[in-house]
Amino acid sequence: MSDEIRIGIIICDRYRACAGGKCLRALNNREGAFSIYEGKAVKLVGYTACGGCPGGNIEYAPEEMKKNGADVIHLATGLVVGYPPCPRVTHFRDFIRAKYGLDVVIGTHPIPQNYYETHTALGTWNSPRWTEIIQPTLADEETRLRYD
Ligand code: SF4
Question: Helices H, strands E: what count in the chain?
Fold first, then answer.
C-alpha cells in the first residue's frame, strides 16, 4: 500500500487551453491549496476541464480519475477567480463527494494578486460563503504576486 496521494484537477472551461503552468508549479512547490501535501508524495492522475457551463464533464470526469486511483479532486483556482467565479463550485464539490466518495478541495494554485485586487474592488468575495471558499488559495501577498 502506497502513501502516495493521487489527485485529479478539473479546470473551468473558459481556461480550457491552459497548459496547467500555475497549477503544476504550485503542486511542485506545495503552495496554495496544495500546501496540505507538504512533506507528502503526490501524483497527478488526471487533468481536464469542466466541459463548459453548466459543467457537464463534472458528472463523468471524476469517475475516470477514480479509476486511475485518484483520492482527491481539486477544482482549480480558475473557478474561484474567473469573472464571474463559477456559481456552481460548491455544488460540484458536494456532487463529487456524494457520487464518487472522493475528497474534494476547492482550489489549486494561489490566487494571483491581480485577480485578488479586482475581486476585492468588486466585493465578489464579501460573504461568509466566499470567505470560506477562497481560504485554501488566498496565500500571502508575496506569494500571490509570484502567480500574477
Ligand atoms: S463557470 Fe463553472 S460551469 Fe461554467 S465553465 Fe467555468 S467551471 Fe464550468
Answer: 7, 4
